[in-house]
Amino acid sequence: MPKYSVILGNLGNTCDRFLSSGYKDVPPMKELLKQAAEIDGVEGVELVGTWDITVDTVDEVGSLLQKHGLECVSIIPDLFSQKRWGKGTLSAKDAATRKQAVEYMRGCVEIARKINCPTLNIWPGQDGYDYYLSSDLVQERRWLQENIRAVAAQAPDIRFALEYKPKEPRNFSFLARAADTLLMVKEIGLDNVGVCIDTGHGFVAGENIGESIVILQQYGKKLFHMHFNDNHGSWDDDMIVGSVHFPLYVEIIYWLRESGYDGWYSMDQYPYREDGKGAIEASIRFLQMVERVLDARKHEELKTLMREGDNVRTQNWLRETFFK
Amino acid sequence: MPKYSVILGNLGNTCDRFLSSGYKDVPPMKELLKQAAEIDGVEGVELVGTWDITVDTVDEVGSLLQKHGLECVSIIPDLFSQKRWGKGTLSAKDAATRKQAVEYMRGCVEIARKINCPTLNIWPGQDGYDYYLSSDLVQERRWLQENIRAVAAQAPDIRFALEYKPKEPRNFSFLARAADTLLMVKEIGLDNVGVCIDTGHGFVAGENIGESIVILQQYGKKLFHMHFNDNHGSWDDDMIVGSVHFPLYVEIIYWLRESGYDGWYSMDQYPYREDGKGAIEASIRFLQMVERVLDARKHEELKTLMREGDNVRTQNWLRETFFK
Amino acid sequence: MPKYSVILGNLGNTCDRFLSSGYKDVPPMKELLKQAAEIDGVEGVELVGTWDITVDTVDEVGSLLQKHGLECVSIIPDLFSQKRWGKGTLSAKDAATRKQAVEYMRGCVEIARKINCPTLNIWPGQDGYDYYLSSDLVQERRWLQENIRAVAAQAPDIRFALEYKPKEPRNFSFLARAADTLLMVKEIGLDNVGVCIDTGHGFVAGENIGESIVILQQYGKKLFHMHFNDNHGSWDDDMIVGSVHFPLYVEIIYWLRESGYDGWYSMDQYPYREDGKGAIEASIRFLQMVERVLDARKHEELKTLMREGDNVRTQNWLRETFFK
Amino acid sequence: MPKYSVILGNLGNTCDRFLSSGYKDVPPMKELLKQAAEIDGVEGVELVGTWDITVDTVDEVGSLLQKHGLECVSIIPDLFSQKRWGKGTLSAKDAATRKQAVEYMRGCVEIARKINCPTLNIWPGQDGYDYYLSSDLVQERRWLQENIRAVAAQAPDIRFALEYKPKEPRNFSFLARAADTLLMVKEIGLDNVGVCIDTGHGFVAGENIGESIVILQQYGKKLFHMHFNDNHGSWDDDMIVGSVHFPLYVEIIYWLRESGYDGWYSMDQYPYREDGKGAIEASIRFLQMVERVLDARKHEELKTLMREGDNVRTQNWLRETFFK
To answer: CA B84, B85, B90 angle in degrees (round to 5)?
Structure first.
């Protein structure tokens, strides 16, 4: 049975470039943790470094988690929301910025250790470029790789899950797709460095996430973490799971099982104008529905159908199996 | 209760630019009609002019339809598969080609009358352009409009449903989106000229088809015909309905009902490597499932939810209503 | 000769949902106006209502404009950056919000009159929806139409340019494409209501902007305003003109001339990490280069090429005409 | 100085799924070779196995090439246009088909050897899938990898350039992106197996081709071949180079030089309605223009600009350097 978790910030305020003050009000962190704990099935949270947790608050946050029976699934270092990171972090053209980013990451390792969190989820969203002809791609990609390696090599007790995304906030990200990221992971060559799939990021990249899972697992068991959401296909709309697509989630669940993934199913959404807790809850219930209907017998039926590849039969089976 | 139909050619061979001889074998037309009649729920067929029906074969085809209890829902003039149409038909730069296209269209009107077919479904797929700076857009768009008007004005007994598509086979089509096409329809200003929505064409255009239905119906009851299929979002993959998306079909059914559409639900797919009959059947069953579950009571519940616009509630309702 | 203008805010700070405090520092408004005036070719500015100008500051701003020899090209009512507009303005489900939006728009009319600004550029970015099945599309689209009509009918001395955009901040905008917007403009039926094209919004909608210009001008001279920028095709990246595409801008200039557009060429960009003034300047220089090279003789050559439609000849001509 | 080549079939007929008989007439192969030789700068051709060359015609074709002073740059095995390949070749679910595909590939190796052609350009266009849940992805991807390895291991004298493409003719290709393909190349682990970039395929995948070049070259000098064309971004429109985009081609040339690529610049287009020879010629002239303007001094200026990353300066430099 998969374990569900949520990125704590999903329950808080949301903003965009047009309404920078935000669409909602932010409850205090205590309240957010309480809400997370109340969602049926949630056993863990991901915390954004600096926002949700710092060296100074780690004990207090640890106590709160314990009180609510929640695990800290991952720390997500804040490599994106600070002005100093605006033109990049671990791969920034500016040497002093790169140095700050490495130091900041090491601080996050310390926080993770203190709160017994096994994973840093690294999303270097500001590392990339916007215009053609604006980056020494050899050099900057190498800095990113070397700096991740430098931090991870000194923290073999922590897993580093690199999260890819084709664009936003940069028009081109250095970690853009599952396979690009796996290539860098293999160059880094450390057991504790792998990949995080965010389903919506993969949709924007044109990936069938089922196949991304297969690639990451076949080429070295490198799928470390999963973020779930849905979108309309061309942008990271960060919507409730199942609100746009259906059969692809069945394929995701199928390959997560088949490939031996034993990590968390974490919700990563951005409910701009929705109740955050309700949006997360609806997503988890959707995935739980797929899990329930796709029981062991149905899973085996599906395996046979996929091997035969008769799409008419498979589509009829899907409709009859899942819909009323 | 909606009436289902199918474009006859969907049951036959399929090809593409790489495998131009086709992926399958073509059964004779008699066999295709028999297959169409056997699909549970199908009461009509659409015939492609020249391919499926000509002035010479109209009686024979009429008899076959009668034998199988099928109506001829529409004639689709072949404005796309002949070498002479390669650079356009009703809007071609070449005056002789435009004249031929008008004459050909008039021939299709005659065929439709003879077989008691109420509708010409006009898809001017070759009318458009591929490169920037390659078309006198004012002139060519005007030719298209005037030539459709000229044919339709002389055939007030026949309905002309203009089918839009953003691209393919041209990189830019003159009838590209629902609203573009409606604008031309309003300029033409004839009661018997309206629009055909192909769901997949609309997805590629970035449309929420529910909204396209509303626009066409609100601005003059101009939705004349519906083609159903699914795709992955960026191209007209012409797949089985429901094989990629789900909730948007609920919205389509909702607005077809609300807006008083009383035309056909016609299947338009391109089962390259699938059994054609099976693919059509699976699509119809998917839509019938949506129709059945969204009964009168559920339809009213949905209306209330849409007016309130609480997406968490609506997504929970969708999951509980449709899934096991 | 076209007149160039700039949206004043382009020169200021920029933020996004990840770095909401912004990538740069905001100079005071006086400084922004000075910068605008210094850009070679700029003769006007667009001001965002509330941000840049209010009833209270209109005299002061007017003096500053006069001092710098700048016209106020348009007022852009702020229908997007206030918390109360988060779920819509003129089409909001909430009646009190719609009323506030109408009143706010009337205030903007007053400001425009006081500063002798001829145009309100209406971008109702929050009017739309995010999820399928979340909006009574008939009702909400009607509110939008009626409220725009109500305001515009009482201000026949002011032109209302409706700016469309397929998505962002909503996943689906009610004013999404050129033709959708023109349909609503025609339903409104007032001489002083037309359309603003933002080139990048059109790219995301899959439009060839040259054709959008033709459609708007042919069906009633309804192109009221132009915003220029470039992007990578799938999102409103708001980049320097010419940084991604080239020949399509030649087509835009061609059709602006041919269709008798005599409005402003206004720059609308979002230089997240660039010097704002420099980005605007580079865009204007790019367009001025196209204007200069496409002189009267070259314009006529191009007209002939477009009518002939031989893409090989046209591409050779483009290369030889524009490149060194 | 780069050497230019062309895929011979580009000069012949073109068709699509709607006009399967083709838009043009096919000249005989002798005529096509003559045309290729006449294009200024062309020194080589790529031949499609079975279409252009077979074991039986290899001597005759060899003589013709010699007569025209053309090299055979690559053989492209026809893994796409035969009915037996409709559901896959080297990864087909059917074991007999996989065996046939391996044998056919070995035949192509023999042809290449006989005509002194150094490279097989492998585009397994039919290897992939169309629907979710239709493929045992682990097994089928493994078959593809093992079968390529099996053929390549026995032909160390021939280079195998694997050409990726996100979709078409399958909705999902197994070799979809640069990084996916490189991963498989690295798993295969043979010196004579690398990657071919088709620029348009990369655009559809959302890649900045400059970065794809860097990735392939940095992670093992695996860029074996280059196909050039342009498109509108969402589909493989196979258009004349430079007809849509501009600065990205400057970046491509820059990184081809920097990364030490010494292979061919081959034209791969699909001039549906254009004169084939003229389209290829226009593409080569566009690239030659970029090569000429970006001379050694300008190349160094650009290097400095890219390292500094000031997009305003770089865009001004681009305009001043390349445009009149």
So the answer is: 125
List B residues 95-154 in contact with C (Cβ-Cβ < 8 A).
129-139, 141-142
Tell how far CA C222 is from the center of its chain: 14
Cα distance between residue A171 and residue C232, in whole Å: 8
A165: closest CA of chain C, how far (Å): 14
Structural domain of D238: 3-293
The H or E element that residue A6 is part of is strand A3-7
Is the domain of D129 the same as that of D256? yes
Verify that C116 and C243 share a domain, yes or no: yes
Q: Which residues contact A264 (CB under 8 A, 6 or more apart)?
A: A2, A3, A4, A5, A44, A73, A225, A226
Q: Where are the beta strands (DSSP E) in chain D?
A: 3-7, 42-48, 71-76, 119-122, 128-129, 159-163, 172-173, 193-198, 223-228, 264-267
Q: Are residues D159 and D243 in the same domain?
A: yes
Instruction: Check whether residue D232 and residue D320 sit in a common domain.
Output: no
CA distance to partner chain D, nearest, from residue B83 (Å) = 6
Rounded (5°) CA angle D217-D222-D226 = 90
For residues D281 and D164, membership in a common domain is answered with yes
Specify the number of domains making up chain D. 2
For chain A, helix (H) and strand (E) counts, in that order, are 11, 10
User: Which candidate, B201, B212, B199, B276, places its Cα nearest to that of B241?
Assistant: B199
One pLDDT digit (tens) per residue for chain B, 324 residues: 899 999 999 998 899 999 998 999 888 999 999 999 999 999 999 999 988 999 899 999 999 999 999 999 999 999 999 999 999 999 999 999 999 999 999 999 999 999 999 999 999 999 999 999 999 999 999 999 999 999 999 999 999 999 999 999 999 999 999 999 999 999 999 999 999 999 999 999 999 999 999 999 999 999 999 999 999 999 999 999 999 999 999 999 999 999 999 999 999 999 999 999 999 999 999 999 999 999 999 999 999 999 999 999 999 999 999 999
**Strand-pair category, A193-198 with C3-7:** unpaired
Question: C-alpha angle with apex A20: C237 to C30, nearest 5 degrees?
Answer: 85
Q: How far apart are CA A217 and CA A179, in angstroms?
A: 11
- Residue in C135, C166, C180 nearest the CB of B215: C180
Say whether both A128 and A55 belong to one domain.
Answer: yes
Same domain, B313 and B253: no
Angle at B285 between CA B280 and CA B288, to 5 degrees: 125
Q: Are B209 and B197 in contact (CB under 8 A)?
A: yes
Helix (H, G, I), strand (E, B) or coil at D196: strand
User: D240 at the C interface (CB within 8 A)?
Assistant: yes
Choose from C91, C94, C136, C137 for mutation: most chain B CBs within 10 A: C137
